[in-house]
UniProtKB/TrEMBL annotation:
GO terms for molecular function: proton-transporting ATP synthase activity, rotational mechanism; proton-transporting ATPase activity, rotational mechanism. This is ATP synthase subunit b. The gene is atpF. It comes from Buchananella hordeovulneris. Keywords: ATP synthesis, Cell membrane, CF(0), Hydrogen ion transport, Ion transport, Membrane, Transmembrane, Transmembrane helix, Transport. The chain crosses the membrane at residues 21-40. GO terms for cellular component: plasma membrane; proton-transporting ATP synthase complex. Pfam families: ATP-synt_B (PF00430). It is a single-pass membrane protein. It is found in: Cell membrane. Belongs to the ATPase B chain family. PANTHER family: ATP SYNTHASE SUBUNIT B, ATP SYNTHASE SUBUNIT B', CHLOROPLASTIC. InterPro entries: ATP_synth_B-like_membr_sf, ATP_synth_b/b'su_bac/chlpt, ATP_synth_F0_bsu_bac, ATP_synthase_B_chain. Component of the F(0) channel, it forms part of the peripheral stalk, linking F(1) to F(0).
């Protein structure tokens, strides 16, 4: 290399003196050695701890994702089960409603039959009462008529009953004659 100054005794700018290079190299080696011995293990332990924390966080995140997926699947299964149960309850309610309607129809038919039978019994009782009353009225009329025609008093109840029965039989056998209507 050439010195910057023009002469042989000039100052070299690019090359420092050898003693400075030695001391600078020694200082650099001491600093690097101290860093290597003291700072680097702490730095690597900090990096290892940070790396372990990150890995633990990743594992926790994966576990959380797995748990979330499991929880979602479980929730979906529960929703499906709830839908199934709701459908079963609806079907059961419909069946019960049909049973209730059928029972109500049966009860209504039975009540109608009971009312009809009660009406029939009441009608039969009314008919029997009307027949008894009519027999009594016809019997009195027949007795009165017989007394007037025959001129005899029918005070004997057996004889009066026989005359009444005979008159009723004749009335039942006789056709009912209705007066002819005149057309104008």
């Amino acid at each position: 290399m050439q010195p910057l100054a023009g002469g042989a005794g000039g100052v070299q700018v690019l090359l420092p003196p050898l003693s400075e290079v030695f001391w600078a190299g020694l200082a650099l080696a001491i600093i690097v050695g101290a860093l290597w011995k003291y700072a680097l293990p702490k730095l690597t332990s900090l990096l290892d701890e940070r790396s372990a924390q990150i890995e633990a966080g990743l594992r926790a995140s994966e576990r959380a994702e797995d748990e979330l997926a499991t929880a979602r699947a479980h929730a979906a299964a529960e929703r499906e089960q709830a839908r199934t149960e709701a459908n079963q309850l609806r079907e059961q309610a419909r069946a019960e409603a049909k049973d209730i309607v059928a029972a109500a129809r049966v009860a209504a038919v039975a009540e109608g039959e009971r009312v009809r039978e009660q009406f029939d019994a009441q009608l039969a009782a009314s008919k029997a009462a009307a027949e008894r009353e009519l027999r009594g009225d016809v019997g009195r009329l027949a007795t009165e008529l017989a007394r007037r025609i025959v001129g005899a008093e029918l005070s004997d109840p057996d004889r009066a009953a026989a005359v009444i029965d005979q008159a009723i039989e004749e009335l039942e056998r006789a056709p009912i004659k209705r007066p002819a209507r005149s057309e104008a």
